[in-house]
Each structure stands twice: as C-alpha cells, then as structure tokens.
Design brief:
By secondary structure, this protein is an alpha/beta fold. The protein is about 60% helix and about 10% strand.
Length: about 625
C-alpha cells in the first residue's frame, strides 16, 4: 500500500509541476503567433486530468494505509498488554492503557505515520516545482528556495512549544480518563458515601484542565501556522515583485510570469505543509516514545520450558519486600500434589503476598520458588494450564455468562453447565440465560454468584491444582460449606486456600479437642437466638428480655450468665450489624429479616448507649 502511495504521489507531483509549464508554452506560442499553441493547451488539460486521477489514487491509498497501520498498531499494543508480566502491567494505571488504545494510537498514526507520507509528497511537489522554476528562470528558483527555508526553520523553532503543549494535553486526558474510569467502576461507592457533589466537582476540574490543555495546544498550533504562513507569503511577494521587474527588462515573457505565478501559488501549499507537518510529527514525539517503550517491555507470550505435571511446589528461602517493608522473610515450605492446604492469617501477615508469588502475579522476590525442581519463573505463563486461580474479587467480563465461564472456548459449554449444577447454581441457571450479556454496571449479580462463576471457570477446565483467595467469602454458609466439602473430597486435587477468617471449629484440634468454639465468643446459640428473636420480632427492651430469659432458662443458666451474654449480644449487634457474619442462616421467621436487601433497615449511626445503660441497671 505504501508503494501505491509513493507512485501516485510522484506522478501527482510531476503533473502538478508540468501544468504551469504547458500553460506558459501555450501563452507564449499564442503571443508569438507560432504553431503548437493547441498542442500545448491539450497537454495542459491532460495534466489537469492527471492531477485529478493521481490525487484520487493517493487519497484512497493513504486512507487504506492509515486504517491498516491503525489496526496493526492497536493489535500489537493489545497483544503486548495481554502478554505483559503482571507486575509490569500494574505499574501503570488501567485507564492509561485505555487512553493509549482509544486516543494516543490514533493521534500517533494521524500525526506521525500519515503525516510522514504527506511530508514526502510535499517535498516531491516542492522539488518538482523548483525544477520547473529553474526551467522558467534561475533567479526565481533561488528566491523560492530562500522563501521555503525560512518557514521550515520557523517550524523547527516553534515545534518544541507545540510538542510541550501536546504532552500537557495527553497527560490531562489520561488523568481525566482515570477519573471517568473511577466513576464507572466505583459508582456504588460514590452513591453509598453520598459524595456525588464532591466527586463531580473533582471530575469537572479535571475535565476543565483537559479542555484548557487542548485549547492551549490549539492556540500554539495556530500561532505556529500564522508565523509559517506569514513567512511564506512574504516569500511569494518577493518572487512576484522580481518577476514583474524581469518582464519590464524584457528578460521574462508574459507566459513565464503566468507560469511562475501558478508555481508560486502551488509552492505556498507544500511550503506551509512541510513546516506544519514537521511540527505535527514532532508534537507526538512523547506519544511515540511511550508506545515504543510499551512495546519494548518483554512479554510472556511463550515460556522457555513447557509446564510439567505438578508433583510439588517448593519455597526455598523466599523473601519479599515492598519498598523498605519486609513482607516475607526466608520462607521455606513444600506443597505436595493431591493435598489440601489452608493458609490462615490476619491482615498484613503476608498471606496475600505468598498467594501472588505462588500464582505468578508477583515475580520480584529473593530465593527460589520451584515446581518439580524447576524455577517457577521459567514456567510462566504455560504453568497457568496446570493451575486454577480464584480471586476473592471475582471479575466478570461484560459478555455472556457462558463466555464468562468457558472463557471464550465454546467446546466447554456442556461441561460448564454440568459444573455449575454441581456448585448448586440450579436456581441461577433457571433464572438466567447463559447467552445473556452481563453488564457490570447493572449490579445484577450478588457477590456469591460472582464467586461461583469464577470457581466454575476453574473447575470447567478440570485443573488439578487450585488456588483460592477467600473464594467463598461472599457466599452463604451453606453454599460455602458444600463447595469446600466437595473440593476436599476430590481425590488427586491440590487445593491451596487463603483465608482471613475461618470458623474456629475448622481449626486443627489440640490434643483431640477443638481449640475454640464460636459459642465461646457469642454465647450459647439458644440464648443468642432468643435475644435476637424477641428484640426484632416484638421490639422488647433489654429489661423485659432479661426477665423472660430468667424464666425460660431457669435451671439451665444463672442470672449472671444470662446478663453477660445479653450484654455481649447488644454490643455485637450494633457494632457488627453490617458484616455478613451477623446475618443468620436459615428461613425468615415472622415478618422480619436481617437481610440488608430485604425488610431490615438500620441507620449507620445507630448507638447502643440506651440499651447498654439499661442492662447495667439489671
């Protein structure tokens, strides 16, 4: 396609420069009464037809080249982002990639690649017109060369300012896109915190900065073009004045003057264009360097070693630090195939970091992590064919539910449906069309349903090693227990699960005894349910509930025990009302439910002072 652009540009430039010469010869022939005037006129008409034909070919071929280049560059950048190492990907804000793909690549193609072809054409026109002027008059040619160089020099001087303004505009646009992305993805957070006005003000400020930056860029471009145009027209005036002088001395014919005037008019276009095109190409230098740096990042499209069947994964003296903070220090452990592991820890204990290290989401560490004795860094990304990863914050694509589970592999449809049934998603399958497109902004999936879909992805692929990052935290207790039990009973399946909280009854027993029971924290379940029922169902005060409990549990619990757990109940009810762990399992009793999506509504500033003070008087 570039070849066609070049050929049509050359032929167009030749026709453009021949047209004034044919016109000059025709006028001179008529003025001298010589033969050949008609022939020269026909050649003049033919050159006009050639200009129309080759300009059409040049425009079409340039448009096709632009689309081809735009598609090719976007494809390269998208492929590179997909295969980029996770840590490198996370160094940049996500919306910046959107800006690159949607704005900057198009700016680069238009202002650099296409402009480069236009620059070549402008130079061709300039050269052929100068040759034509040399044919008419050598002195005119010298004047043209000088008047052409001046705008180009001015363009080089002013180009820096335009490049600076373009970079400011690009940075402002990137920041605006980040804020727009935050609005879309963080919409619920903005609503529930009632910060619409504050966020809108911030968004408007960024939008205003982007608009000002764009206008500043436009003003700089206008200033550059005005300077270039002024110098070009000064050069044209000098040339016309010289031509008139030469005619008065009898050294230039009228036909030559007409031809020179046409050439001077045609030279204004390439002269201005060359200067403008150089400025335009320089204005996107920062964008070109950014995309080149992006494409220069080594990707992980292919692993150096094929991933083997995992027999064991081993940490050998592994340490990791973030900035100056040590997260892991000299960790050693061996995970064997077919076994189940629970990694339990508080916030900041390093369990999430360990999860990222084992799943390849973090690769900057000291020591060695190996699979069957091979450094794990040599096996990515092929190792993902062996392992499945379920993250707590399960991402759902804005695509059909089926594609979200099969991950764009239609052959897995039947197995995906079977797996979803095994995960207890019968109701979901009955109420959702798998070919229905999911839209993240509609909030039409609960957190538990998202996690089940994410788990279904892994099980559909029949992975034999599964990493779970609090993968059932948003599910109801029954579903969570059923799914975890199913995974634990699956022979040959390796499960490495990370949890922040776990039911105490699931912790390893000490000396044959359960180390801790939930009832040790909240009190006997029957007392807890008794308080809950009479408080919500009938609205009884602590004093009345206490008096009723003394009669109901007479001989089973003494007054001090009943008062202790009543006080604990009210404290936990007010402090932890909005945590999922406080929502009771089982059917709704009466007309009251604690589901925040159902009947129960509780103010976020509720205080238990009144109830606590009444309990203290018992």
């Amino acid at each position: 396609m570039v070849f066609i652009v070049v050929i049509s540009s050359v032929l167009l430039a030749v026709c453009t420069s021949l047209k004034p010469i044919y016109l000059q010869n025709a006028i001179d022939a008529v003025d001298a009464g010589a033969d050949g005037a008609l022939t020269m006129f026909l050649c003049y008409v033919a050159s006009i037809l050639g200009i129309l034909l080759f300009e059409t070919a040049r425009q079409l071929s340039t448009g096709k080249y632009r689309n081809s280049r735009l598609f090719s560059l976007k494809r390269k950048v998208m492929a590179h982002i997909v295969y980029m190492p996770p840590r490198k990907f996370q160094e940049e804000q996500g919306q910046n990639y959107v800006t690159t793909l949607n704005n900057e690549i198009e700016m680069l193609v238009d202002s650099y690649y296409v402009t480069r072809l236009e620059l070549a054409y402008s130079i061709l026109v300039l050269i052929t017109c100068v040759i034509a002027l040399l044919y008419i008059n050598g002195y005119l040619a010298m004047i043209i060369i000088v008047s052409t160089v001046c705008p180009i020099v001015a363009s080089a001087v002013q180009g820096k300012a335009l490049e600076k303004r373009t970079n400011f505009y690009t940075m402002a646009l990137e920041k605006l896109n980040v804020m727009i992305g935050n609005l879309i993805h963080g919409y619920p957070t903005i609503k529930v915190n009632h910060i619409e006005r504050e966020y809108l003000q911030t968004l408007e400020q960024d939008n205003e900065k982007a608009a000002h930056a764009e206008f500043a860029k436009a003003k700089t471009k206008i200033r550059v073009n005005m300077i270039i145009g002024l110098l070009s027209y000064i050069g044209e005036a000098v040339m016309v004045g010289f031509s008139i002088y030469e005619i008065s001395k009898g050294r230039l014919s009228v036909g030559a003057l007409v031809g020179a005037l046409q050439l001077s008019e045609m030279l204004v276009i390439p002269t201005n264009s060359i200067s403008y095109q150089i400025s335009e190409m320089r204005s996107v230098t920062g964008i070109r360097q950014k995309i080149q740096q992006l494409l220069a990042v080594p990707d992980s499209a292919a692993a150096l070693t094929a991933a083997p069947t995992i027999e064991y994964m081993e940490l050998d003296n592994v340490s990791f630090r973030h900035d100056e903070k040590v997260i892991l220090s000299h960790a050693n452990y061996r995970f064997e195939a077919g076994k189940k592991y629970l990694i339990l820890g508080e916030n900041g204990s390093g369990k999430s970091t360990l999860f990222k290290l084992l799943t390849g989401l973090e690769t900057e560490y000291e020591g060695c992590i190996s699979v069957n004795g091979t450094d794990i860094r040599q096996l990515w990304p092929a190792l993902y064919d062996q392992i499945g990863v379920v993250l707590q914050d399960a991402f759902i694509f804005d695509d059909t539910f089926l594609r979200n589970v099969t991950l764009y592999r239609p052959a897995l449809r039947e197995r995906a449906i079977s797996v979803m049934h095994s995960l207890g998603m019968d109701a979901f399958l009955a109420s959702h069309d798998l070919d229905q497109v999911f839209q993240n902004t509609k909030g039409n999936l609960s957190g538990g349903e998202r996690q089940k879909l994410a788990l279904a992805r892994v099980l559909t692929e029949n992975k034999r090693v599964i990493f779970l990052d609090e993968a059932t935290a948003n599910m109801d207790k029954g579903s969570s227990q059923k799914i975890l039990s199913q995974l634990l009973r699956t022979d040959g399946l390796t499960v490495i699960s990370i949890e922040h909280k776990v039911s105490p009854e699931l912790l390893p027993p000490k000396e044959g005894e359960i180390a801790q029971k939930t009832e040790d924290l909240v009190g006997p379940y029957e007392l807890h349910d008794y308080y809950l029922y009479y408080m919500l169902r009938f609205g009884f005060t602590p004093r009345k509930i206490y008096a009723m409990a003394l009669r109901s549990f007479a001989g089973q619990y003494d007054a001090e025990t009943i008062k202790k757990w009543l006080k604990t109940f009210y404290r936990r009810f007010f402090q932890q009302q909005f945590k999922r762990s406080c929502l009771p399992d089982g059917p709704k009793v009466g007309s009251v439910t604690l589901s925040p999506r159902g009947d129960f509504r509780m103010p976020s500033d509720a205080c238990n002072t009144v109830w606590r003070e009444e309990i203290e008087t018992l």
